[in-house]
Amino acid sequence: MHGNIPEQELLDAYSRAVVACVERTAPSVVSLSVWQARRRRGEGSGLIVTPDGYILTNSHVVSGASSVVATFVDGEQAQGRVVGDDPATDLALVRVEGHQLPHAQVQAGPRPRPGQLAIAIGNPLGFDATVSSGVISALGRSLTGPRGELIDDLIQHTAPLNPGNSGGPLLASDGRVLGINSAMAGHSQAIGFAIPVETAAWVVGELLARGKVQRDLLRCRRANETAAATDQGARRPHATQCSRSHRDQRELGSQTSGPAPSRSDHRAQRSNGDGCRLSPSRAAQGQPGPTSGHGDPAKRREAPTDPRH
User: Does the annotation count 59 as an active-site position?
Assistant: First the structure.
């Protein structure tokens, strides 16, 4: 018993919340097979954000792709192409032909709170439409992205991620998109990171309108959000205006064993085409680092062998 509520009733309420969320959002989640020079480079996940076929995913999943094959929840496939890429936020847009496609709303909403239920849907290790759940661990984390740029204001959560989850959504219990999963801490237990929906909504708008993001506008928007949060007395650790010089003082660690890094010591790097790999700073050099949810394992479903370029 938990107070006056039977334990079984609590478990049933949790299950109902997760099931309802998945039923609402899963049809808008796709598996992405990435091709380069007629060879399959890897796989990731994506989220349909418009009814006419725009799919949001991670930059490190599709960057440099000559073709992308999207597989929908019903098994149908469609050829796609990258129409916008923003490595600075690790977000990109893929376009497939379609109309009246199931899609999710990517728009700013109430900020998540530590302890809040978090649900991830994606394509880990080739197993499409896989669901995992956990809680929001912390807000405002900062990691170094694929090209050395600092990615700020990330959501840390405990929903298990695996290679292939990158680009899939992180959801609230009511089905709202909280963020886009981007990286996981290797050799750890349930430490994942997602790009917040506020950033994703802005980047989608910029990519749709211009095909690229104007960095001065993004910095201005984030500065305004930080000021507003401060005015409201909100505490935002690792704030978005974190100094770039802090990043410049870091170095990549080797892939050998060593002391565990502190919570602020992680950085992300591009690793052998497999997306982001988080490695420790100089102070913790030698600790194995985390990887993004993107890779090229054996697949349950083979993509077309001659994709359209």
Answer: no
